[in-house]
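[Meeting: bench + compute handoff]

Bench side (C.D.) handed over the final construct sequence. Compute side (W.E.) agreed to return the predicted structure before the next meeting so the bench team could plan truncations. Sequence as handed over:
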Amino acid sequence: MTEYAGVMPSGPSAAFFDLDRTLIAGSSVFVVATTARAAGLVPTRQFARDAASALLFKLKGASDGTTDEIRLRILGAVKGVRHDDLVALNSEVLPKLLGKVRPEARRLLDLHRHAGRATYIVSASPVEIVEPLALTLGMTAGIGTRSRLADGVYTGELDGPFCYGQGKVDAIEEVARWEGLDLAQCYAYSDSVSDLPMLGAVGHPVAVNPDGALERHARRHGWPIVRFNQRTREVIRRAGAGVAATGLAAAGFAGGVRYARATAH
C-alpha cells in the first residue's frame, strides 16, 4: 500500500474536478447540443452556432467571454423546453460522456475514493447533466449551472450563480461549510485559466493538460502540472513543487492499476 502514502488524508478533504477537457476529453456542451438538436429541442441555426463554438473550445480552449457565451446560449436555447424533456436526453448523453472520461481521470477518482476523500464535478454545464454523470461515475455529487423553471418549463434565465470562475469558488465553499471540509487539504483539477479562482481556493491545485495561461501560472507558483495522454496512457509530470499532488496523479498508472487488480481477486 506504499503507493498511497502521499494521498491519505490527514483531515476532512475532497477532490474537485472540472469537467470539460479535464475529467473528459472535449466539450460536454457539444455532446448536449448534438443530442438536443437530434431530439428537436434546439433550432438548427442555434445548434450550428453552439456546435462551432464548442468545437473551437475542444480544439483550442476558450477565453472567459467565449465560454460564458456558450453556456448562456445553451441555457437560452432551452427556453420553453420542459424539464422532463431535457432530463430525458440523459439516456443518450450519459453514455456518450462516459465514453469521453479519460482513463487517467478514472484512476484518480479511484485513488481519491480509496483515500476516503469525497469527489465532485464542478462545471458550468447544466446540473441536469453534471449530477447524473457524477453519480454514474461513483462520485459524491455534481455541481452545475441551474436554469430557472416555471411550471416545469425553462425560462431561459439562471437560477442562482453561474458555476464558472468565482462561481465555482462560491459552490465549493458552500460544500465545505455543509460537509465540514478543510479546503486547505482539498484537491482541485482543471485545464483552464478560467478556473484559477477554484484552483487557488484549495491547498492542492493541479493543472491538467493546461492551456498556455494556466501552465505559465502553474510554473510561476510551483503547482503540479500533469498531462494525460489518452493514446499512450502516459502522465508527464512537471513543476518542482507540489510533489504529493503530482505523485497522486502519476499513481493512477501504477498504484491505481495495482489497487484495481487487488480488489478484483
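W.E. noted at the follow-up: Residues 11-26+101-264 form a domain with the Rossmann fold fold (CATH 3.40.50.1000). C.D. will use this when planning the next construct.
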